[in-house]
Design brief:
Shape: rod-shaped
Number of helices: 16
Helix content: 40-55%
Number of strands: 16
Oligomer: single chain
Distance between the termini: 174 Å
Structural class: alpha+beta
Strand content: 15-25%
Strand order of the largest sheet: 6-5-9-8-7
Amino acid sequence: MNKQDPTSPQSKVSANLEKAHVATDAAEEKFSLLVESVRDYAIFLIDPQGQILSWNSGAERIKGYTADEVIGKHFSIFYSDADIQRNHPKHELELAIKNGKYEEEGWRIRKNGTKFWANVIITPLKDKTGTHVGFAKVTRDLSEKRESEERLRKSEERLRKMFEGIKDYAMIMLDPEGLVTSWNEGARRIKGYEANEIIGQSFKKFYPPQDIQMGKCEYELVEAAETGRFEDEGWRIRKDGTKFWASVLITAIKDENNNLLGYSKVTRDITDRKRSEDLLKMAYTNLEKRVEERTGELMKINDQLQEAVRTRDEFLSIASHELRTPLTPLKLQVQSFISNIRKKTIKEMPDERLQRMGDTCDRALTRLITLIDNLLDVSRINSGKLNLSMEDVNLQEIAEEILERYKYDIQSSGSLVTIDIKQPIIGYFDRLRIEQVFTNLLTNALKYGNKKPVSIEISKERGFAKIIFRDAGMGISVTDFDRIFERFERLTDNTNVAGLGLGLFITKQIVEAHGGTIEVSSKESEGAVFTVLLPLEKTI
């Protein structure tokens, strides 16, 4: 056999081909080593019918089979019974040939029967002539990723359901311009809008017109964006136009680069709490006002008590003086009687002197009785026991009897008393009490009359007996008209003027007990006029 010349062109071609084969074999060997060393991907070849031709270490790690256990078997061993029954493995190969590639994610089965979530890519292989010779199949185990995504999905689902299911809080999301992007059940219940009615609308819809005009809505978003949150309480508006008192928290949502993504807005209807607080505040205010009023009342009562003490002390001073006044002449006359009796000279005393002594004692006793009766009448009036004994009474007779009874006092006063009665007047009265009225008004006129004339007029007027006592004395100030009819009130502090300050008080009570009235008119230094009206018919 002749050896070929290595320098010939033919020899050079042969040498180049041999080098190319060696390089190709080396490249294929390196690629095989590369594929074999990949552990995160199962990379293997299958023939056109789906029989496994090769197996790398990644396939063994992920699927659990060794190369000896799996080469020559159909790749459907990695599929569930349900996938096999629906002929899914064959369908994958058909789609790979049809589309040039097939990719999916789904459950696959390991040797030990456990499942894993796989990302699968099947690529059809052709030779240089374009003839289909098999498939390359790459599988990646995404179970951890899927579990992580599933946990995230479930977490998001729980949050979504929680977010949507919360009924006591309106929880909504806003975009950076304040447009509503999400809506939960609490928002629907509190604000009245359905999600499809409000999503995409401005959150200004929930604010009163005056707040919108003042720019409150924009201010809240700016404040939240700058400080991270904005919190407020105030009136908000429902879909139906009614107002509710809301507690609002707006929180800015930003990405890792601090870019504003939008806002979360949580609103709670606290109208009941607001109403309770307002009621409590009102109650507290009313309590403060009541305490203030009560304090004023107590201060007034304290003033009244102090005035009562002052009046009592003044009354006791006046009473002691008034009681002592008639007692002094009475005591002197009694002592004189006793002295003359002891000396046995009583029979020698002139009748005129004895009469004077008797008159003095009688007047003193009468005055004492009157003072005591007045005090007793005040007690009866205070206890509501001013009883009347009614009978037919002739007012002219009473007037004349009183003038006769007090003729000495009239003479001592220096006043001339006249009486004017046009016709007999008979009414249904308590005689003794009406006598008190005449007595009190007469003694009052004599006391303050300044020795000037006093007139008494008795007449009929529309079913009433009209009695007028008129004097021309010191008169009464208009500011004292009501005061003079009170207990222990006197027109003057002069202790030389007799009286306890009870006469007019008792007179008024008697007149009103008969269903009548008493009034006074006067000007200072021009005298006073007391007018009594008593119903003539039976009224009580």
